[in-house]
Write a structure and sequence with these properties.
431 residues; alpha+beta; 12 helices; 8-stranded mixed beta sheet; 15 strands; 21% strand
Length: 431
């Protein structure tokens, strides 16, 4: 039976816990509610190992029974987990409330509030921040009709607070020029798993380093792949929730993984990425592993973590679209600094020109070149239509900001003819 080494949890006083333990891959079945019926007792036994090591298994078993309880036969009420982005712009917060009956659209849900002074989003003397429900997903942890609700944040007067990036994105995506072009996004979210007590990557020797990069990308084997159960549990949770996840793979640095979401249209791309990040935080929380979206978690000869964003418009996907892509690249080159400043904190540590990145200080593009700012695929060049990949966003980027900025720069913003001519010459672009 395949097994995964999981860091130890904090144990309650008086309960003996093993400092390190081997958890079977079947454990992850207990993290998610199955799509049909109640969990088996077999999955439940695995959960006990994760929850706490205790001789009083009956207590844990009763707790598990309550966690697995299907409320549908007894009440129409559901649990809605309201999710929002905290004061750092990357931290995720959530709290639960009871809703009288199942709903189908966010407009059917009530607004709610929270203490913004405790999240760095409001002063103590005027701390109330209002949550506006914006998107609904199924809850893979509670199952049944229970839901996850992506919200954005406003003052009591109805003004978006500074960390509400969704509001501005929705304005851009609601413009007719953007709507007509049906912008598609495919986002590649990279992340790194860390050991709880040491904050060192999962699978790495404590205080030391594994062998150099090379054997780990898309690898299999206990000495090369660390955290696969977390990746798989997250994959299934996203599918259950209704997130448009399209794939996953192990990354170049050991302990680092990637998943892809898309193609998604407009504002939906940001909603799906934020909900997928929430699910990943919850799963790593249960696994006793720390999730980081730091764009360069380990200094030195190790790959960083990005959030490559694949982008196309209706015109790019149609015959003659390659010329539209080149024009978009021209616009992107002229607004390089605006994009870089919005593409994630600490990105300068990642965009060095090494480890499959371009330098943060200059703009470049190329066909099949992963060392450029913008990559165009061979297939797109051959067919004369398709998409481009913006390789600059960091793993901790805000998807509302990145997706809307791409649409704004390529569909709404216009450069002067002189600036276009100079940029085209510099980039050797014939548009």
């Amino acid at each position: 039976m395949a097994q995964t080494l999981v860091p130890s949890l904090q144990c309650p006083k008086g309960i003996a816990c093993n400092s390190r333990r081997m958890v079977s891959t079947k454990l992850w079945n207990s993290l998610l509610v199955p799509s049909h019926g109640r969990r088996s007792r077999k999955g439940g036994n695995a959960f006990k190992v994760l929850a706490v090591s205790s001789e009083k298994s009956g207590v844990v078993s009763r707790l598990e029974d309550l966690l697995n309880l299907d409320t549908k036969p007894y009440t129409n009420k559901i649990i809605a987990e309201y999710i929002w982005i905290g004061g750092t712009g990357i931290d995720i917060r959530s709290k639960s409330r009871t809703i009288a009956k199942p709903v189908e659209h966010p407009s059917e849900l009530p607004k709610w509030n929270y203490d913004g002074s405790s999240t760095g989003q409001a002063p103590g003397e005027d701390s109330e921040v209002i949550l506006y429900p914006q998107a609904i997903f199924k809850d893979p942890f509670r199952g049944g009709n229970h839901i996850l609700v992506i919200c954005d944040c406003y003052t009591p007067a109805g003004e978006p607070i500074p960390t509400n990036k969704r509001y501005r994105a929705a304005q851009i995506f609601s413009q007719q020029q953007v709507i007509d072009q049906v912008p598609w996004y495919g986002i590649e979210q990279e992340y790194t798993l860390l050991q709880t007590n040491t904050k060192w990557p999962l699978g790495w020797p404590v205080g030391g380093y594994p062998g150099p990069q090379g054997p780990y990308y898309c690898a299999v084997g206990a000495d090369k792949s660390f955290g696969r159960d977390i990746s798989d549990a997250h994959y299934k949770a996203c599918l259950y929730a209704g997130i448009n996840i399209s794939g996953t793979n192990g990354e170049v640095m050991p302990g680092q993984w990637e998943y892809q979401v898309g193609p998604s249209v407009g504002i939906e791309a940001g909603d799906h990425i934020w909900c997928s990040r929430y699910l990943l935080e919850r799963i790593t929380e249960q696994a006793g592993v720390v999730l980081t979206l730091d764009p360069k978690p380990i200094e030195g000869d190790w790959n960083g973590a990005g959030c490559h964003t694949n982008y196309s418009t209706k015109s790019m996907r149609e015959d003659g679209g390659y010329e539209v892509i080149k024009k978009a690249i021209l616009n992107l080159s002229l607004r390089h600094q605006e994009h870089i400043s919005a593409y994630g904190e600490g990105n300068e540590r990642r965009l060095t020109g090494k480890h499959e990145t371009a330098s943060i200080d200059s703009f470049s593009w190329g066909v099949a070149n992963r060392g450029c700012s913008i990559r165009v695929g061979r297939d797109t060049e051959k067919k004369g239509k398709g998409y481009l990949e913006d390789r600059r966003p960091a793993s901790n980027m805000d998807p509302y900001v990145v997706t809307s900025l791409l649409a704004e720069t390529t569909l709404l913003w216009e450069a002067t003819l002189e600036a276009e001519a100079l940029a085209a010459h510099k980039l050797q672009l014939q548009v």
